[in-house]
Amino acid sequence: xxxxxxxxxxxxxxxxxxxxxxxPLGLGYLAAVLERAQYxxxxxxxxxxxxxxxxxxxEIAKRQPDIVGITSTTLTYKSGLQIAKIAxxxxxxxxxAMGGSHVSFWDKEALQECPQLDVIVxxxxxxxxxxxAERVEAGRDYYDVLGTTCRKNGKIVKNADRPYIENLDALPxxxxxxxxxxxxxxxxxVIFPLVTSRGCVYWCDFCTAVRxxxxxxxxxxxxxxxDEIEYLHRKFGAYQFTFYDDAFTVDQERAAExxxxxxxxxxxxxxxCETRVDMVTKDLLRTMKEAGCFAVWLGVESGSQPxxxxxxxxxxPAQTIKAFRWAKEVGLMTVANVILGFPGETRETIWETIRxxxxxxxxxxxxxIATPYPGTPLYEKVVKEGLxxxxxxxxxxxxxxxxxxxxxxxxxxxxxxxxxxxxFYLRPGYFFSIFGRGRFWSFSILRTILAHFRRAxxxxxxxx
Length: 464
What we know:
The protein has about 475 residues and is of the alpha/beta class. The chain is about 40% helix and about 15% strand. The strands form four sheets. A seven-stranded mixed β-sheet has the order 2-1-3-4-5-6-7, with helices on both faces.
């Protein structure tokens, strides 16, 4: 009897700033690799199914898993621990494993906090989970599996890192068929995520990606990427995609070749991506637009050069202005990602950033409060300097200040962020300027505008 693996995406903590559900690609790849090896695999996505802990208990009781594999971010870390506890209560003999960026750097702490958790899978998990399944099926112990941290005879053992996967084309496509796709629809459309690369060549102090996947850019071939798009199009009728790469255009020629391959195959699709402002040209953005790209998310981070330098972002406001101008000239929608409250930030630098965004005039905006995730230099800095206010990871939602700044209180930072949102979304005529860009986009923007209008009214009435 083949080993049975149940993979779990834990629920968001109650009251947190939540993102709409997508197929979590980490679990999707794990499921595909295990299925290819003919293991029995199923998925419980608590976010997609809106499951509470008791709802999860009911679902896991319907199965007989040998392994329960749980993913987690920093925000869902505590939820993940609770999922492990419930899994052990229902199936005492199952092996519980947790992976994801948070526990990759919080491995010993997680095992200490949760006796029901057996194994931490660190960093890239496909080959590690496959080996764990092989060990369980063969009845062998798992204490020396590369890329894991576990307990042995009551002591925590941290094994060496597993080498990264060099040939990403060798991975099967994520197992989307295991997800309740009807629950992932947004205004009638399922937006399928893809990732075309792993690793990064930059070293931004707030980011876990380079620490998770290495300071080297490992890429799937353009053919393999478009093969996946075509497969999803044929199997699921997919026509809208989002590239989850941290910087889609690091290799600009490869990005252009992906676009050319999409056009060669005559695929009528829409997609968006995220990238750096210093990794685009006007010609590349035009090529992307011609291949179906409709929006590009650009890492602005700050309008203040000293703050950018403190982040070790490696860009200038001048480069940002140029990238936004090019994107607009070729007809792409632009989204600016901004971080407020980085160490050293002041009210003056925040206002410099707010005015900078108003000068850029992006189509949409994301203002995020600087959040020190374990594994990043930002986390190490605030801990070393005694600035961290809490290790309650349920509050690490990019909307809640979790460390002391010295230049302003957390409440002042939150008020500035809210004011920045209101100045952006409540501009006269803003909605009509983006109306008609697409049903999903326009409807989402309308909801955002109404939410900020309500919050502005409440704020004026003295409610915080």
